[in-house]
Design goal:
By secondary structure, the chain is of the alpha/beta class. Helix content is 35%, strand content 10%. Among the domains are: 245 residues, Type I PLP-dependent aspartate aminotransferase-like (Major domain) (Aspartate Aminotransferase, domain 2, 3-Layer(aba) Sandwich); 101 residues, Aspartate Aminotransferase, domain 1. The strands form four sheets. It has a seven-stranded mixed beta sheet with strand order 3-9-8-7-6-4-5, with helices on both faces. A two-stranded antiparallel ribbon has the order 1-2. α7 links the parallel β4 and β5. The protein is globular, with a radius of gyration of 26 Å. 41% of the residues are buried. It binds pyridoxal-5'-phosphate.
Length: 535
């Protein structure tokens, strides 16, 4: 009989909490030393056997390639890797374990990205054959379902924003911002007012507000914040003129600070003859609380891949839902989806439209996921999302500001909306450790954080956004880990400087990244370089 008094059974829960709060994880990332998928290829192996085309279909379609232009015809089959199904599954599962994906961790370190939980029921709906096997060129009478969903979701966004029409064509927030800048240009052109070549934005609005205005042919005037964290009315008054085409602005700004003078900003730009577009990618703390049109905005956009819970796959697919007031809806990218009381149809009759900004009607399956999310929550649920996102954010700020070396610049002691841009300036001054280095060390505990857009107006920045999707327990774990990393910076800076330690990839030397000769974006280019090198 084992004498348990001598070697007692370990209580595995003992190291999980201290004073009721979660401890930092003893995390270590998987390291599979996994080959590139092309290395795994084995001639003849197949994951799926595609059935032969039915003779009857062949007789009907005859030679399908004859209509393809010769220049588009491949001379050889694509050099795709040949793998069995379980090899493919194993490969991607292993790769996923070497990632800090949104479903793996308390993903609150990607401020401005609203990395909330993507409900799997929405994936289930969007991946059903009723959605995934639809073709955008199908006869409209055969796709009434998705047209109905898109039209109904448009009505919901009209309620949320006060705008009168929405286009779902822009395939991302930046694409919607560009489309709004193009609407502003088209509006002034349609009135023969071609001298209006300036767009005003703020430094804490998203960089794509300035970039898209520039791309749309405007000169950009960028306003800087006062101590409260948003520009002075006087600064705006000084910037507007009869050359002002419009204002492109986020509110709250990337700092999570809400500009209370926003309707005055809109009034001043309108008085100068400009239009106002509201970048509402950061709308997570405002749902059911404020509306763009109520502040006088003429245009707005939402990132469905942020606020509306569709997967934020860093690059797609995404939807920037673009909204316009009654006066400007005719300029939206067409076709829009209309209902004649009996059937839904694509309204191509839009002579003043800026034209299409993407193929077909945007990412329909993303609109379906967002619609499912909203229908699940209902109007009260949407408001609750905003309230919890703001509560979580201010609870997190309260706890984070207890950590040594960190601060929340601007609007000292004031509440924030859905995110905060913190500064590790004090820690950097004390230890010489940069914010990026702390962020890398966080990965050793299975967490991470992102610093900020450039330029770093807030020194040594870290932008955290807890959303409504995480519990107090999750937030406490994040805070405890951030505290541990800060303490390490003060007591054992070498450990932080030399991080990561628990990840499969250590550090890619900057000199490698800076030398395009030393890396390849495709397997074929890599093999070619290797062959040249070995010649
Ligand atoms: C405020 C704001 N506007 C616009 C964008 C751009 O959106 P997207 O990444 O979909 O182009 C972002 C994305 O981070 C954002 O935070």
């Amino acid at each position: 009989m084992t004498d348990l008094t001598k070697n007692p059974i370990e209580d595995i829960r003992s190291h999980r909490h201290t004073d009721g709060k979660p401890n930092v994880r003893r995390y270590h990332q998987a390291r599979w030393d996994e080959p590139i998928i092309f290395e795994l290829s084995a001639e003849g192996e197949r994951g799926v056997l595609v059935p032969e085309v039915d003779e009857e279909i062949k007789r009907t379609t005859k030679d399908v390639y004859k209509n393809l232009p010769a220049s588009m015809m491949r001379e050889s089959l694509p050099a795709l890797p040949e793998l069995s199904q379980n090899k493919v599954l194993r490969h991607y599962l292993r790769m996923s374990q070497q990632n800090l994906g949104a479903d793996f961790q308390v993903d609150i370190g990607q401020g401005t990205c609203t990395m909330k939980y993507n409900p799997k029921v929405n994936e289930h709906l969007a991946r059903s054959h009723k959605m995934s096997e639809l073709h955008p060129l199908q006869d409209q009478d055969t796709v009434q379902g998705i047209l109905e969903i898109t039209h109904k979701f448009e009505q919901i966004l009209k309620d949320i924003s006060g705008m009168s029409r929405f286009s779902f064509q822009p395939r991302g927030g930046s694409a919607a911002i560009y489309a709004n800048a193009a609407v502003i240009r088209k509006y002034h052109e349609s009135r023969g007012d071609t001298d209006r070549d300036e767009i005003i934005t703020t430094i804490f609005s998203h960089p794509s507000d300035a970039a898209c205005a520039k791309l749309a042919g405007f000169k950009v005037i960028t306003l800087y914040p006062n101590d409260d964290g948003y520009p002075d009315i006087e600064a705006l008054k000084a910037a507007v003129s009869d050359r002002t085409a419009g204002l492109l602005i986020t509110n709250p700004e990337d700092t999570g600070i809400f500009n209370p003078d926003i309707d005055e900003f809109v009034r001043i730009v309108h008085k100068a003859g400009g239009l106002c577009a509201y970048d509402q990618a950061n709308a997570n703390g405002l749902l059911g609380i404020t509306r763009a049109r109520d502040a006088g905005f003429d245009l707005c956009h939402f990132n469905l891949h942020k606020t509306f819970s569709t997967p934020h796959a860093c690059g797609g697919p995404a939807v920037g839902a673009q909204g316009a007031s009654k006066e400007l809806e005719c300029f939206l990218p067409g076709p829009l989806i209309d209902h004649d009381g009996e059937r839904y149809f694509l309204n191509e009759d839009m002579p003043h439209s800026i034209g299409k900004v993407s193929a077909f009607y945007g990412s329909a399956s993303i609109v379906m996921r967002a619609y499912a999310w909203v229908m699940n929550l209902g109007a009260e649920g949407l408001r609750e999302v905003a309230e919890i996102a703001v509560l979580n954010n201010n609870y997190l700020m309260h706890e984070v500001l207890k950590i040594k070396g960190i601060s929340a610049p601007y609007a000292e002691g004031k509440r924030r909306i859905e995110q905060v841009r913190y500064s590790w300036e004090e820690l950097y001054r004390d230890t010489g450790i940069h914010s990026e280095q702390l962020g890398i060390r966080m990965a050793d505990y299975g967490l991470h954080y992102w610093t900020s857009h450039h330029p770093f107006v807030v020194p040594e920045p870290a932008t955290l956004e807890p959303t409504e999707a995480y519990s107090v327990e999750d937030l406490d774990e994040y805070v405890r880990t951030l505290k541990a990393v800060s303490e390490e910076a003060y007591t054992n800076p070498a450990m932080v400087r030399s991080a990561p330690h628990n990840c499969p990839i250590h550090k890619i030397k900057p000199e490698v990244l800076d030398d395009p000769e030393r890396w390849s974006v495709t397997w074929r280019a890599y093999c070619r370089k290797l062959a040249n090198q070995n010649e």
